Amino acid sequence: MKIKAYDISKTASATTLIFDAIRQAIIKGDLAQGEPLRQEDIARAFNVSRIPVREALLKLEQHGLITSQRYKGAVVAGLSLDEASEIFEFRALLEPEVIRRAVPQMSPQVLETAESCCDAFGRADDPMQWGDLNRRFHTTLYASSGLGFHMDVLDKAMDRIDPYLRAQLLLSDGMQRANREHRMIVEACRAGQADRAADLTRQHILGAQESLSRYWQE
Amino acid sequence: MKIKAYDISKTASATTLIFDAIRQAIIKGDLAQGEPLRQEDIARAFNVSRIPVREALLKLEQHGLITSQRYKGAVVAGLSLDEASEIFEFRALLEPEVIRRAVPQMSPQVLETAESCCDAFGRADDPMQWGDLNRRFHTTLYASSGLGFHMDVLDKAMDRIDPYLRAQLLLSDGMQRANREHRMIVEACRAGQADRAADLTRQHILGAQESLSRYWQE
DNA sequence: GATCTCATTATTGGATACAATATACATTAT
DNA sequence: ATAATGTATATTGTATCCAATAATGAGATC
User: Fold this and answer.
1) Considering the domain boundaries, does residue A46 fall inside one?
2) Total domain count for chain A?
3) pLDDT for A63-117, tens place per residue?
4) Domain-located, residue A8
5) Residue B113's CATH number
6) What is the span of the domain harbouring residue A67?
7) A interface test, pick of B149, B158, B159, B206 with most A CB neighbours within 10 Å
8) Sheet with B73-76, side-by-side order of all strands
9) A51: nearest CA in chain B?
10) Is strand D in 7 Å reach of the CB of B55?
């Protein structure tokens, strides 16, 4: 079983815990696309019945992380390069607006956290951490925007594309460039330059997309 | 094969049917915000057990149409003016891009369908039909874009805001103006003017938002 | 009268059992 | 041998039952 199965606690519903565990496994690439997810197997792994498992799978399907067919079960969703590109473009459209709104609201504490992500990002040598820190960097800045709905759909978009983003970070200068661009974005935020932060964010995303697209065909 | 095999409604699961029914009820305003949704009641209404009902409620929660608390149940989600405005702005950001991509791909048939929506819109006197036709008008045009992810999140945004959009159509010149603007959008599409269609769409949405905001305050 | 237990009830979360469907394999007919 | 058909098995969908929790109300205490 490739899913990390915690023993269920009472604080959160079983459904939520199972959802989180499988989501992590997919995002980190532990579960490859197309991998089937059998209700019974998952239920055994978590020491629960199939009911909460089914509800977790339903949530995963809504997030686009799995696809399921009636009476046939669920598999980890695949993503073609075209679909990945579409989601990159979606992010490139949305995130500049989000950060533009966030900049005027950013507390020093938020900027501090973002910079600590940059520092840790530069020091980390575990490729898996890069993905986590990259994601935390962006969500930290965006949180100040106060935009609930935008963030909801953005989270979904990031979930969907996360494995590809991690792959992009592993490319020759992927991590180096991401680090450079992150620091420029923070700088613009600290200076209160919302438009510049928005523009840098847009280029940051489109750059990652292009980088991934180039290296895709080999 | 001479026998035409209609698919009995076995194709859809009970969960799906319940989800659709409740979604419609919320979108059309039959269920007011804050209205509690008891699993047992719904199960009786559909002659099923609570299991498919719970799964339908989960999907509705993912769509943002209801909110639920552990051991306390679900209620129809509310939406403040601020939240509604955010979603209008979200749509204003996304839909111009979607239609811009759709215009070059539109078949004559699609344009025909869109115009038939306009005609029916003008003739209809039932306010409830306006909302349906308005929605169908937009989704018809957008379908040509081939953007799967964009449409997914857009559907969610439209679901969320639909009751407010219907309210806006009921305002003094809401329906008249919508009709006018719809025809201008179709015209641009037919002429292959993607940028113009995008711009008109943006103004169409922001106009509806402003109209609703003004009315809201008095 | 107000408020604080504490039992009662209503409602949701989850487990078990059964029904519906798909898949894999064996069997038969051509 | 190949395609069609029947059977067994695996897997999902749903119903029924029990457990955990929240809402309700009656009586006790001040």
Assistant:
1) yes
2) 2
3) 999 999 999 999 999 899 899 999 999 999 999 999 999 999 999 999 999 999 9
4) no
5) 1.20.120.530
6) 14-76
7) B149
8) B36-37, B73-76, B66-69
9) B51
10) yes
